[in-house]
Amino acid sequence: MDKETLLKELNYKAIRSSGAGGQNVNKVSSKVVLSFDLGNSEGLNEEEKTYLKEKIASKLTQDFILILNCDEDRSQVKNKSIVTKRFLGIIEKGLTKPKIRRATKATKASKERRLKIKKVTSLIKKNRKKPDL
C-alpha cells in the first residue's frame, strides 16, 4: 500500500451542508464528500484490492467505489482532513489480517487448582447438611 499514491487518487467534492446553522449553511459549501475508486487504484496491488473488496464490501458501491461524507465542522478544510483520516483508517483496518488463533492446552497447575477449588466447594456444601445421628 502506497499512501501517497492513494491520497493522489482521492476525489473531493464540496457540498452545502444540511441541518441547523443559519445563514452559514445556505452560503458556505462546508460538507466534503470523498470518493475513491478501489477497482482502478494504482496505490494498491491486486491482492490488497481483492482483500479489501471482501473486508469493506458493505462500504463500497457496486462499482467498488468508496464514498465518505463529513459535515462535522463548519470549516471545509477541517472536514477534508477528518474525512481523509477516516479513509486512511478504513483502508488500514481493512488490510490488517487477523491473528491466527492457536488452540492451547490447560496447564497441569491450572488443572490442579481447578480440582482443589472443586474439593473445597464440595466440603463446604457437605458441611451444610444435617449430621447423621
UniProtKB/TrEMBL annotation:
One Pfam family name from the record? RF-1
What family, per the record? Answer: Belongs to the prokaryotic/mitochondrial release factor family.
Query: Its Enzyme Commission number?
Result: 3.1.1.29
Q: What are the Prokaryotic-type class I peptide chain release factors domain coordinates in residue numbering?
A: 16-32
The name under which this protein is listed is Alternative ribosome rescue aminoacyl-tRNA hydrolase ArfB
Q: Which UniProt keywords apply?
A: Hydrolase
Which major enzyme category is it?
hydrolase
> What organism is listed for this UniProt entry?
Flavobacterium ponti
Give GO terms: molecular function aspect only: peptidyl-tRNA hydrolase activity
